[in-house]
Amino acid sequence: MASYRGLNDLGPLIGKRALVRVDFNVPMDLQTHTITDDTRIRAALPTIRWLIGQSARVILMSHLGRPKGPDPKFSLKPVAEHLATLLERPVAFVGELVGEAVNEAVAKLGPGDVLMLENVRFHPGETKNDPELSRQLASLADVYVDDAFGSAHRAHASVAGVPAFLPSAAGRLMERELTMLGEVLGNPDRPYWAIIGGAKVTDKVALLDRLVAMTDGLVIGGGMANTFLTAEGYDLGVSKVEADAVAKAKTLLQQARDRGITIGLPVDLVVAEAFAPEAAHHVTTPDRVGNQELALDIGPLTVEAIRKWLSTARTVFWNGPMGVFEWEAFSAGTMGVARVLAESTAKVVVGGGDSVAAVAKAGITDRLTHVSTGGGAALEFLEGKTLPGVLALAKSSG
């Protein structure tokens, strides 16, 4: 991985303007503008507080949602107000991204003051990585800090464009993400196991290829397990199976056998006759799924099998739920795996939005080694792809 500056490499910042890309794309009730989960805001606090402590003039920018243009529902003003309560100090807000109003707001900042700009995606140049927008943003500051790992896979102006114009560094969160995921990618303590769930094999082909090649064991759960079980010859009734991915699943299974690694598939399933939260359900084995039944979770025997498989693991990476965990009736498998990991002595790294939500629901976030804030960014990084935001930091550091 290419080298990049950290905060401590920026030199004295007293009175300097620091433009900080954060990831404040938080869940929000768009009617009341109430933030329902501030995890990502809290994750950026160490960087923001450090810059305040250095007497920098802090200018924050982020995206929120996927607006097609300026849209009051996606304004960052409520986020600025929430941040102010967490920092216990004022956070100024300007309802523009660039322009005279922004220049005036920046000019009013004193050492240690904080300003938040409006949603970067209100500007059409953001997603196009427009060099002119990048230049205008850079003109607001003396240094640039990227603490938005969740956006590092986007070649956008505020992520990949601005570092070309300013001395740049990774924030505390960005550094931790790259360090922890880098260890999983390049130098994990062994035995190294991965647990991969979620709905579709085709969404994670590159990740599965890489994990089969480098792990000592791989557990497959969630909807994608249906495709792997089908590849093994099971008839899963009306369960969702990716017919066009069965051949790929067979290939991955054979590659695992050739390497001599274990691929753990469900040994029991929670099945129902309808895809509905209140559907009647029961536990059965893969060879006894009824013609009109569909699998919606792994069963208790599979959770215990996972516990046994991971008993000697020293590193575990988890991405993707084991079933439809949002519905209480089909959440036991995912919650069970979460508890197994919470009790493990292994280094446990969790990446991916649904996985993060699952460990939060289980109340075990603080008991794991690292829970990534970057869904797509974490997966692309672990697939071995170069992230535009990280590359831009490396180029900026010279």
Layout: helices, strands, pairs:
Layout: E1 17-21, E2 28-29, E3 34-35, H1 39-53, E4 57-61, H2 77-87, E5 92-93, H3 100-107, E6 114-116, H4 131-138, E7 143-146, H5 157-161, E8 168-170, H6 172-186, E9 192-196, H7 205-214, E10 217-220, H8 222-231, H9 246-259, E11 262-264, E12 269-272, E13 281-284, E14 294-298, H10 300-309, E15 315-319, H11 332-343, E16 347-350, H12 353-362, E17 370-371, H13 375-382, H14 388-396
Helix pairs in contact: 1-2, 7-9, 8-9, 10-11, 11-12
Describe this structure in words.
This protein has 398 residues and is α/β, with parallel strands linked by helices. The protein has 2 domains: 181 residues, 3-Layer(aba) Sandwich (Rossmann fold); 156 residues, Rossmann fold. It contains 14 helices and 17 strands. The chain has a 6-stranded parallel beta sheet, with helices on both faces. Strands 11-10-9-15-16-17 form a 6-stranded parallel beta sheet, sandwiched between helices. A hairpin with an 8-residue loop joins strand 12 and strand 13. It is elongated. The model has no long low-confidence stretch (mean pLDDT 94).
